[in-house]
Specification:
- The complex is a heterodimer of chains A (about 300) and B (about 140).
- Chain A is α/β, with parallel strands linked by helices and about 300 residues long.
- Chain A has 2 domains: about 140 residues, Aspartate/ornithine carbamoyltransferase (Rossmann fold), CATH 3.40.50.1370; about 160 residues, Rossmann fold (3-Layer(aba) Sandwich).
- The radius of gyration of chain A is 19 Å and the shape is globular.
- Chain B is mainly β.
- Chain B folds into 2 domains: about 80 residues, Aspartate carbamoyltransferase regulatory subunit, N-terminal domain (Alpha-Beta Plaits), CATH 3.30.70.140; about 45 residues, Aspartate carbamoyltransferase regulatory subunit, C-terminal domain (SH3 type barrels), CATH 2.30.30.20.
- In chain B, the strands form 2 sheets. In chain B, strands 2-3-1-4-5 form a 5-stranded antiparallel beta sheet, with helices on one face. A 4-stranded antiparallel beta sheet of chain B has the order 6-7-8-9, with helices on one face.
- In chain B, a hairpin with a 3-residue loop joins strand 2 and strand 3.
- The longest helix of chain B is centred in the N-terminal third of the chain and has 7 residues.
- Classes of the chains: A alpha/beta (about 300), B mainly beta (about 140).
- Chains A and B meet through helix 4 of A and loops of B.
């Protein structure tokens, strides 16, 4: 029985296989409409997250399965003080697979150690969010046809942005990927990722505070939101939240085949006027997230 | 100073000077009924000063714990007064409830029953990270 807690739980071959499945679902959705007939997905969301939860639910429904669960801790047994271990042991009796979001880092890992069914990490605090990374990878693959030989700009909150950390880990397994890290000084990528992933892997990376300076070099621009919920200090959040705003003017020097990604939701960091630019991929990215979650559910449930 | 040599037991040698009491506590040697000798600041050609622990009983020592606290220590097994085995230690791949995660965002700080588990992330630099949140664990001498 497999779970997905960290994107690196999946090998390169498994990611390639998930992408092939997702591509096939996009081409032939009817083939998959009953694949999970009679199966139940439990969405255990101890922290509100509309889009990730809806994406999981839509994924399961499109596979012909059912969904049970809760969308905030207040409506769960956690509000009565039940441990995660007990919650998943009980839910394992009712569901075939679990998608869990939790504000505490590592909660889905604890769940996977105690669960009788596969657990998917749907986001654990500021730590990991592997299914978002799967959405990012499918988007990059469909836009660029490859993961190697790319210059990838990551912009915004690189300190607390879990999607950034997971994407760097995932892309660090491919050849000739160059990372451009664009953030204010207070939100730079943590040293342990620079040291353990980038420097040890021999990856080229460049740090800057100036998005426009590096725009012409980028094949991928991954924008992120400065997340209020990751700050203990409201004043710091307010000072940093508008560090980068992508506008059509800033894109004037960008490559014609640049792909602009954003894990969403955005709160002002991409101007609405960018949405009509053919290089804007973030809504497609949300759609692709659903297909990758479908492919992942099939893989973990071992449905052929 | 004369300490009787042991017939059947364990000698933990080459302990960095000053760490023997910490090992004594972490290995729960206070629970033993047999003789336990702690020798502090013994002269050592290699180390200058070292600590030694002699345990007059052959017991299974948590080598992972020992390797984490003092990877330079050696464990000598004595049977019938003869050294039969000498084990050199190294940093263990994983330690449980030896390092404690202090990240307030980590699940272990919210649920007390979850064991604090750290995995070796970088052997050259001796860096351990919490398996739940990836926070770097501070070894005792760094605290």
């Amino acid at each position: 029985m497999r779970s997905l807690i960290d994107i690196l739980d999946l090998s390169k071959d498994e990611i390639a296989s998930l992408i092939r499945t997702a591509d096939d679902i996009i081409q032939n959705p009817e083939k998959y409409a009953e694949k999970c007939h009679g199966k139940k997905l439990a969405t255990l969301f101890f922290e509100p997250s509309t889009r990730t939860r809806l994406s999981f639910e839509a994924a399961m429904y499109e596979l012909g399965g059912h969904v049970i669960g809760f969308s905030e801790a207040a409506s769960s047994s956690a509000s009565k003080g039940e441990s995660i271990a007990d919650t998943v042991r009980v839910v394992s009796c009712y569901a075939d697979i679990i998608a869990m979001r939790h504000p505490k880092e590592g909660a889905p890992l604890v769940a996977s150690m105690k669960s009788g069914v596969p657990v998917i990490n749907a986001g654990d605090g500021g730590h990991n969010h592997p299914t978002q990374t799967l959405a990012d990878l499918l988007t990059i693959h469909r836009e660029k046809g490859r993961f190697s030989d790319l210059t990838v700009g990551l912009c915004g909150d690189l300190k607390f942005g879990r999607t950034v950390h997971s994407l760097i880990s995932a892309l660090s397994r491919y050849e000739n990927v160059r990372f451009v890290l664009i953030s204010p000084e207070e939100l730079v990528l943590p040293d342990y990722i620079k040291e353990d992933v980038l420097q040890r892997g021999g990856f080229s990376f460049y740090e800057t505070e100036d998005l426009e300076e590096v725009m012409p070099e980028l094949d991928i621009l991954y924008m992120t939101r400065v997340q209020r919920e990751r700050f203990f200090n409201e004043a710091d959040y307010i000072r940093l939240k508008d560090s980068y705003i992508l506008t059509p003017e800033k894109l004037l020097t960008a490559k014609q085949d640049l792909a602009i990604l954003h894990p969403l939701p955005r709160v002002g960091e991409i101007a609405g006027s960018v949405d009509d630019d053919p290089r804007a991929c973030y809504f497609k990215q949300a759609l692709y997230g659903k297909y990758m979650r479908m492919a992942l559910i099939l893989m973990l449930l071992e449905v052929s | 100073m004369i300490i009787d040599s042991i017939k059947n037991g364990i000698v933990i040698d080459h302990i960095r000077a000053g760490r023997s009491m910490e090992l004594y506590n972490l290995l729960h040697l206070d629970r033993l009924k047999c003789s336990v000798a702690i020798i502090k600041n013994a002269p050592s050609e290699k180390m200058g000063r070292k600590d030694i622990i002699k345990i007059d009983e052959e017991l299974s020592v948590d080598l992972d714990m020992l390797g984490y606290i003092d990877p330079g220590a050696t464990v000598n097994i004595i049977r019938d007064g003869v050294l039969v085995e000498k084990r050199h230690l190294e940093l263990p791949e994983q330690v449980e409830n030896v390092i404690f995660c202090k990240n307030p965002r980590c699940i272990v700080t919210a649920e007390r029953e979850i064991p604090h588990i750290f995995r070796l992330a970088n052997r050259e630099q001796g860096i351990y990270r919490c398996i739940y949140c990836d926070t770097e664990g501070k070894r005792n001498e760094e605290e």
